[in-house]
Amino acid sequence: MRRRSTIREVASRAGVSYQTVSRVINNSPDVADATREHVLRVIAELDYHPNAQAVSLSRNRTDIVGIIVDTVTSTFFAQTIDGVVKALRRHGRFTLLATVEDATQFDVIDTLQRSRRIDGMVIVLPLANSLSLSRLTPGRVPTVHIDLQYDMDVYGITVNNYRGARLATEHLIDLGHRRIGIITGRHDIPVGQLRLDGYRAALRDHGIPFDPTLIAPGDFSFASGVAGAERLLALDPRPTAIFACNDLMAIGTLHVATRYGLRIPADLSVMGFDDTPEAALACPPLTTMRQPLRAMGEMAADLVCRLIDGEQPEQMRYTVETELVVRFSTGRCPGD
């Protein structure tokens, strides 16, 4: 194995001090152009690569940003991570990825914040409750949250869940549906309540009485979508449309409808939320509300880089809107 060249060997070959080599590596302006070009040629000849840890210590920064997510197995989080990573790359920064499988992992996040291994953090924990999030010590490193719905004094990128759910329900109403079931998200986090509130607001604005029997509890999982659909489709009369508060539960609803021999959308319309890749692959392809997940990741990365560089952004929270994506799982109300 070839021995790695050292900074002093570069300095000796170039005929300059090792401090000059260091200034060239750190792109200091206090080096003449001719000297800089000469030192860079020698660095290339010797295939010299600075010790990253030593450079980070000298600059008091690592150019690494931590990304904290619930899981990497969900396409929801995968799209968000992709946006963060690509934007950080444009800023010349790298990524340290960590997942939070249970509450004890928040201790790991706290340790990461206290360490000198990262310059900032992007946290994507939309399913965390306020108690868990309160354990994250603020202020140790610049931090930006994605899809944080709590009223906390932190930087964040948030989606308008209330308006998105309202638009989703209005889409079904515009198709003539009046008996619209909903499979909710978790009741212990704001996103679930906000989407339910948007559903109820759309009904109210269109003069449709609210019927609590048309609410089926869910937790954003496929299994809860199946259970919620079975509960709603057992009603008499059954709903002509179901709004599931995420795509995974909507796909669970499609499975139940197929098992019951219902045609989608001739007998039952099904609406999702998120527009994950699975939505377009469902049978039939799912009508849903698109969250700009990659764009949110990019916005968060840009914001955390600004904070790391010492900027003071004009606002702390940024809200993005959802977009209706009409495919083949929604149609006119039967008999309309």
UniProtKB/TrEMBL annotation:
Keywords: DNA-binding, Isomerase, Transcription, Transcription regulation. InterPro entries: HTH_LacI, LacI/GalR-like_sensor, Lambda_DNA-bd_dom_sf, Peripla_BP_I. PROSITE patterns: HTH_LACI_1, HTH_LACI_2. Residues 5-59 form the HTH lacI-type domain. The keyword Iron does not apply. It holds the Pfam family Peripla_BP_3. PANTHER family: HTH-TYPE TRANSCRIPTIONAL REGULATOR GALS, LACI-RELATED TRANSCRIPTIONAL REPRESSOR. This is Transcriptional regulator, LacI family. It comes from Roseiflexus castenholzii (strain DSM 13941 / HLO8).
